[in-house]
Amino acid sequence: MERFICVTCGTQYRDSDGPPERCPICLDPRQYVPPEGQRWTTLAELARDHANELRDEHGLVGIGTEPGFAIGQRALLVPYGDSNLMWDCISLLDDATAQAVERRGGLAGIAISHPHYYSCMIEWAHRFDCPIHLHAADAEWVMRPDRAIEHWDGETLALDHGLTLIRGGGHFPGGTMLHRANGAGTLLTGDIIQVIPDRSHVGFMWSYPNLVPLPEAAVQAIAAAVEPFEFDTIHGAWWGRTVTPDAKRVVRRSAERYGRALRGEL
Predict the structure, then answer these.
(1) For residue range 220-248, what is the model confidence (pLDDT) as tens digits?
(2) Could you tell me which of 71, 73, 55, 165 has the C-alpha nearest to residue 110?
(3) Which structural domains are found in the chain, ordered by start?
(4) pTM summary value
């Protein structure tokens, strides 16, 4: 029995004798199946020619896989008392990475923005004996169910140590962001609010690879969801994707620009 991992999106599936017939996450129009078709790997195979790198990410510790794998996101370790909350997740977990995380206080929990980054979340949760916080609206996309998953509902979930999960929706119905009440405040957004090359704005999409936009109401709802929170910095999903300072103002004017664009007013 193996736990196969989709090479395109990085999602790990439950134990099986052979690879799944299809990856529902990649067949969904918010993702894609590449022209060469669906391919699968395992954690052991992935570790043979990939390794994780830990870097400073504007005051947080990032964990990313080199060479890049699947969608290529990196996870972030967010201080959580004497431990950490892992924000978003990556597929590769090996002994060297686990030991590096343990030296930094381990994990007290995992929270993930949306299904494209569920990856090997169960491997991480089992290794650190911690819960995974996922929004219930996206429960259908869990490909390896496990008791470590704690589905939450509603618009916000207050965690300890000044951390709050915020449902923004948009990219996925349960699309989640994490607010950290430190200093001027930090917002970790995954793909729900996308950090783009022009750091004076951010982006919003229903499907990023296939360039399908969101309706204006959904974008305004995302902006409204984060409005009650103070934040000067946004961390996106990939290395170096950071907006600072004035990040809250950037979200406001980006949502306004999005509406003008859909109305043909730019």
Answers:
(1) 999 999 999 999 999 999 999 999 999 99
(2) 165
(3) 5-262 (3.60.15.10)
(4) 0.97
